[in-house]
Amino acid sequence: MVKVRNIGIFGKCNVGKSTLVNMLAGQQVSIVSPNAGTTTDAVKKRMEIPEIGPCNLIDTAGYDDVSQLGEQRVKGTRSVMDRVDMGILVFAGNIFASEEKNILDELRKRDIPVLAVHSQSDIVPLDVDLAMELNSLYGLDVVEFSAAI
């Protein structure tokens, strides 16, 4: 039996997590909106990734959700961390601050490998110095992503 790998997409509200999931899946899996807190519960999409095999992409609520139900949403996001084999940490605007570091720490506590994705790079391109700093400090590989490209 082939193991299905779970890949969690994590980050703050409105950094492009759902857009990334939709682009990777090649279809609309998650609702995308400029309104913070659009993704309320984890959204899962099964797909095949070459050289990895069957995977579940799991879109999560923003880690910084401060809405009325935000605490419950963040708790749900943390529970996704308990069942993923890999984490994709999405950030935008060259802002890698306390929320991103908290997500990284949570994933690392669980020994989960992490890839960093700088989203919305058509608006604010990835700062190469920041990418090198994140690699040096945290061993993170950083890739750029833009739905506009």
Your description of this structure?
It is a single chain. The protein is of the alpha/beta class. Helices cover 30% and strands 25% of the residues. The protein contains four helices and six strands, in the order βαββαβαβαβ. Strands 2-3-1-4-5-6 form a six-stranded mixed sheet, with helices on both faces.
Task: Give the tags.
single chain; 149 residues; six-stranded mixed sheet; 4 helices; globular
Topology of this structure?
Layout: E1 5-11, H1 17-25, E2 43-49, E3 53-59, H2 70-81, E4 86-92, H3 98-109, E5 114-119, H4 128-138, E6 142-144
Query: How many separate helices?
Result: 4
Inertia-based shape: globular
Tell me the major beta sheet: 6 strands, mixed
Specify the helix fraction band.
25-40%
Query: What are the segments in which pLDDT stays under 50 over at least 5 consecutive residues?
Result: none
Structural class: alpha/beta
First-residue to last-residue Cα separation = 37 Å
Please, what is the oligomeric state?
single chain
Q: What share of residues are in beta strands?
A: 15-25%
The pLDDT mean sits at 86
- Output the radius of gyration: 14 Å
